[in-house]
Amino acid sequence: MQKTVEIAFETKFEEEVYNGLTTFPKHLSSMYFYDETGDKLFQDIMNMPEYYLTDYEFNILTANKAKIGHLFARGDQRFKLIELGAGDGKKTKILLKHLIAKSYEFTYQPIDISPTVLKVLEQSLHYELPELQIEPQQGTYFEALKKINAANGTRKIILFLGSNIGNLMHEKAIDFLGRIQQLMHTDDLFFVGFDMKKDPNTILNAYNDETGITAAFNKNILARINRELDGNFDTEKFLHWEVYDPESGTAKSYLVAKEAQTISIEKLGLTVDFQAWETLHTEISQKYDENTIEKLAQKSGFEIVCDFSDDAQGFKDYVFRKV
Ligand code: AVJ
Questions:
Q1: Model confidence over 64-74: pLDDT tens digits?
Q2: What is the distance between the alpha carbons of residues 151 and 137, in angstroms, rounded to a whole number?
Q3: Residue to substitute in 31, 220, 283 for testing ligand 1 pocket (most ligand atoms within 8 angstroms of CB)
Q4: d(Cα 281, Cα 241) in Å, to the nearest integer?
Q5: Residues flanking ligand 1, CB < 6 Å
Q6: Which of 30, 91, 163, 311 would give a disulfide with 195, using CB separation of 3.0 to 4.6 Å?
Q7: First CA to last CA across the chain, in angstroms?
Q8: Could you read off the pLDDT of 186-219 as tens digits, one per residue?
Q9: Pocket probe mutation, ligand 1, options 161, 207, 244, 285, max atoms within 8 Å of Cβ
């Protein structure tokens, strides 16, 4: 008779930690960087001079807000502005202020997995833009989008800024885009940011700052396992390591064990052995060229309406619509 051991996981996080640490090579999903500590560290990253992405996109939105507003409102139609992974809204506020100033009729629906992030965003918007109609939706992108879709037929503009798409390797990105596409109608627009291939030194520095903020961000996934799952990782015993392949455009983050060690994670009843210099892969941040973006769009059932870029083409915001 065969015995199967069923492990009951309470959360997706537990399941992914278990699976990622009991396989070879070891890996964890960057999705789990973002607890309260991780959210703060990511704020710090966005303020570092090396992390050029935020500034580039901020400038693109500032320089093109009038054109973008026209695209969104199409004359003067009511619309919903839905943002996936809203964060602190620093970049979105440029658009929101402009749309309000133009008296366009719209509702802003930020979606975020973190209730804290949404609360802070909502409060700051009430204060800075009291006229704004805001309807925050807590949850995963797809849960929230489905709810919004069921609610009514107002035209949707979906924002996905910051090259968040870069956390997904192409096949998964196509899958993700395809699911978004299916939740859209012909009149809706998808506004999505892509970080472009550029001097490999610039890219590497953005993910490997000397102050160690990115290292702390990366290691927060271990600290989170300690906090939430009763783990005993010593984060000092891991090295933050970044590689960038200028051919594929893939930046990869690792945590490398500086010495052999055994970790116990009480809540999962799990012990994990690391050999000296064994790797734990935690994140990819994909960089793009135009051809790749065109292929991604085409394979997920989108066509490109237009794009907005800085002079050096370091970052691009694309507007997609359903074919
Ligand atoms: C939030 C996914 C866009 O990949 O550039 C920043 C996260 N990781 N520094 C990125 C991140 C390390 C960021 N995204």
A1: 999 999 999 99
A2: 12
A3: 283
A4: 9
A5: 45, 53, 162-164, 166-167, 207, 214, 217, 283, 285
A6: 163
A7: 54
A8: 999 999 999 999 999 999 999 999 999 999 999 9
A9: 285
